[in-house]
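Exercise 7. Given the encoded structure of a 388-residue chain, write a plausible sequence.
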């Protein structure tokens, strides 16, 4: 993968694909984590006397939805960067090209939401050509979108001299290192709702990890595959057979597949639900499992504390509901305090770390939930392949 170390950017316009897909509230940026993650690459390129043309998506707009304009992002980015950020009136076109070509070294132009253009997700050659015409070189620093073969992530890299930004470079190096050269023991903590979303990652870790700790609603297909009742718990039917296969594979592998041994139940999915602790895993009718129990959380925390490398993706329960947040909080605190290398795979796990004030306490917090999982599964990421 080509990196910034081998790319000449002095005095040139750089088309920089960044991931500024941030939540908005009341017309302002509600969480600037992804903007901050992009700053090191921006600052390096500006210090090297480049002019920057930034391109990012924001949400999934239908047509030119004004509520998904990049305007609030431009405002927040300028505040964090300490330099003005111009906002283009569109993504491509004569007016945008004129603004891009007028940039001097050290200046920044942010294009409008690239998904305003239907050709973005279709990797349309006309849009690719329009983007390529804005700059002299291309840098992709949007790891969170690197698993998409879109015009701004894959197509334009075929048209211009290119490199990976520092964030994308670090993401790929860190995640590949988990599989190739982890400090042992390697422990994977996998939670969330669906086994089918993460079964390929579980299968991969069965080959390389020492232990996999399962939590969240995805434990219920495993329980059902073992013949346990799950009550009204969220249980993905399509996940039962993959869970059964994973249990069989774990029995003959060198990796322990650990499941919860106690649960916290609710009579419904709500913050004011009736709460009940279950010393066991057989969920009664009318109840749903909404968190791992205290005994399981403590056991998982001990595994994490003794690990050389930890990868965590997915909460242990409905952490957004305070009565059912204890299991996820215990795992988050264990990961934050662990002496080993700690890598958190974005998404809800990142949100949990933010909620508990622990985001700064891990070795690496990935900005790409889906991309990180696909990379760990062994899939090729189009946005990364295009930089090779």
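Solution.
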């Amino acid at each position: 993968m080509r990196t910034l170390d081998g790319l000449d950017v002095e005095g040139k316009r750089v088309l920089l694909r960044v991931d500024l897909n941030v939540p908005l509230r009341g017309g302002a940026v509600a969480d600037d984590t992804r903007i901050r993650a992009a700053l090191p690459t921006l600052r390096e390129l500006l210090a090297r006397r480049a002019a920057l043309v930034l391109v990012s998506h924001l949400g999934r707009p239908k047509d030119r939805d004004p509520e998904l304009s990049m305007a609030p992002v431009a405002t927040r980015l300028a505040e964090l960067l300490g330099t003005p950020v111009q906002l283009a009136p569109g993504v491509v076109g004569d007016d945008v090209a004129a603004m891009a070509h007028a940039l001097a070294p050290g200046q920044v132009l942010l294009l409008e939401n690239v998904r305003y253009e239907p050709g973005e997700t279709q990797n349309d050659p006309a849009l690719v050509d329009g983007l390529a015409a804005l700059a002299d070189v291309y840098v992709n620093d949007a790891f969170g979108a690197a698993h998409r073969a879109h015009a701004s992530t894959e197509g334009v890299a075929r048209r211009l001299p290119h490199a990976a930004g520092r964030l994308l470079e670090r993401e790929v190096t860190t995640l590949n290192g988990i599989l190739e050269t982890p400090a042992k023991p390697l422990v994977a903590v996998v939670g969330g709702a669906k086994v089918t979303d993460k079964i390929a990652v579980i299968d991969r870790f069965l080959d390389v990890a020492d232990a996999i700790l399962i939590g969240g609603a995805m434990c219920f297909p495993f329980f059902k595959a073992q013949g346990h009742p799950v009550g009204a718990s969220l249980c993905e039917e399509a996940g039962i057979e993959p869970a059964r296969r994973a249990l069989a594979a774990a029995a003959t592998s060198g990796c322990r597949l650990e499941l919860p041994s106690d649960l916290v139940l609710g009579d419904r999915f709500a913050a004011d639900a009736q709460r009940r602790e279950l010393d066991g895993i057989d969920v009664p009718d009318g109840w749903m499992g909404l968190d791992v129990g205290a005994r399981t959380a403590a056991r998982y925390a001990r595994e994490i504390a003794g690990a050389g490398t930890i990868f965590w993706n997915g909460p242990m329960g409905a952490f957004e509901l305070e009565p059912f947040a204890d299991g996820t909080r215990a795992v988050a605190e264990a990961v934050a305090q662990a002496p080993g290398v700690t890598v958190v795979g974005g998404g809800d796990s990142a949100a949990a770390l933010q909620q508990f004030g622990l985001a700064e306490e891990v070795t690496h917090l990935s900005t790409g939930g889906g991309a990180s999982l696909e990379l760990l599964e062994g899939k090729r990421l189009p946005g990364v392949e295009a930089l090779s």
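Remark. The two ends are 4 Å apart (CA to CA). Students should compare their own answers with the one above.
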